Amino acid sequence: MDMAFRMYDSKEYSIKEILDATGMGRATFYRYLSNRKEEK
């Protein structure tokens, strides 16, 4: 998950690239991203 967030935060990678690199599903990524934004 840390790698996915680092890639997302860098703004250098598309969502597809992040999902392909991490093997994560789109819905899972967005769910974790939503939870992360709520914590801030």
UniProtKB/TrEMBL annotation:
<dbReference type="Pfam" id="PF02796">
    <property type="entry name" value="HTH_7"/>
</dbReference>
<dbReference type="InterPro" id="IPR006120">
    <property type="entry name" value="Resolvase_HTH_dom"/>
</dbReference>
<protein>
    <submittedName>
        <fullName>Helix-turn-helix domain-containing protein</fullName>
    </submittedName>
</protein>
<feature type="domain" description="Resolvase HTH">
    <location>
        <begin position="1"/>
        <end position="34"/>
    </location>
</feature>
<dbReference type="InterPro" id="IPR009057">
    <property type="entry name" value="Homeodomain-like_sf"/>
</dbReference>
